[in-house]
Amino acid sequence: MTNKNRILSVNKLHVEVAGKKIVKGVSLQLNSGEIHAIMGKNGSGKSSLANALAGHPDYIITSGSAAMDGKNLLEMSATERSLAGLFLGFQYPMTIPGVTVVNFLRAAIKARNGNGIDMKNFRKVFKEKMKLLKIDNSFATRYLNDGFSGGEKKRLEILQMAMLQPKVAILDETDSGLDIDALKIVANGIVESAPKNSGVILVTHYQRLLDYIKPDKIHIMIDGRIVKTGGPELALELEAGGYDKLEAGISEKAGV
């Protein structure tokens, strides 16, 4: 992916959940064409940051700013953020009995007024993306995530991204619960389906996803803060020493 322009800007964002401070002053800048990874242990604030940016009402932004394409995200509802081109791939995708996969996606695309996909060619594009993600055609008429395995649900999340073509895709632990074959399929789907002028943020605590997707930047979150940012070599550093060693090194440098 090649850089073009700034599409997401997050500055000193603070987030609370049920009155508890979870995200503590996070800043990051995402350019179009870039893939960023946010890594950290469970409870470090990664998913809270993702949900807050998407507009989940339980995640209260108490200070800071966030803009997409220069527009203030914090003034938009969750629906408005989605229509503006923000996509969140859920860690635990929701089941919607009674709504088929194909009808769900058709309705979502219509809500975005086509957004890069000619509705006349919907079926063709739909089949192409299903083939890319190795999703059987029978899933088109099944109810969304109803009775799906964990891997099937995650592939359906990437199918949604592939069809909607968002400006910014935040994928929250898309790799969790996937075996190695499913991980390869999902990783390839992310790389092949993301629009070239979009930006992708991968939220994960495992390094293994980054064996198949090479991010432009990696941000390490500890206790609600981004404590270190670097290139792909950061993932190798984590694999070698783990989060505890990294955290200890940061504390030592800070004189704690």
Instruction: Show unreliable segments.
Output: none
Beta-strand residue fraction: 25-35%
Count of helical stretches: 7
Distance from first to last alpha carbon:
39 Å
CATH topology: Rossmann fold
Question: Which class do the helix and strand fractions yield?
Answer: alpha/beta
Radius of gyration: 18 Å
Textual characterization of the structure:
- The chain has a single domain, classed as 3-Layer(aba) Sandwich (Rossmann fold).
- It is 34% helix and 29% strand.
- The chain contains seven helices and twelve strands.
- The protein has helices spanning 46-54, 78-83, 101-111, 122-132, 150-164, 180-193, 233-253; strands at residues 6-17, 20-31, 35-39, 59-68, 71-72, 86-89, 96-100, 143-144, 168-172, 199-204, 217-222, 225-230.
- The strands form three sheets. Strands 6-9-10-3-11-12 form a six-stranded mixed β-sheet, sandwiched between helices.
Name a few traits of the molecule.
256 residues; alpha/beta; Rossmann fold; 4-stranded antiparallel sheet; 7 helices; 34% helix
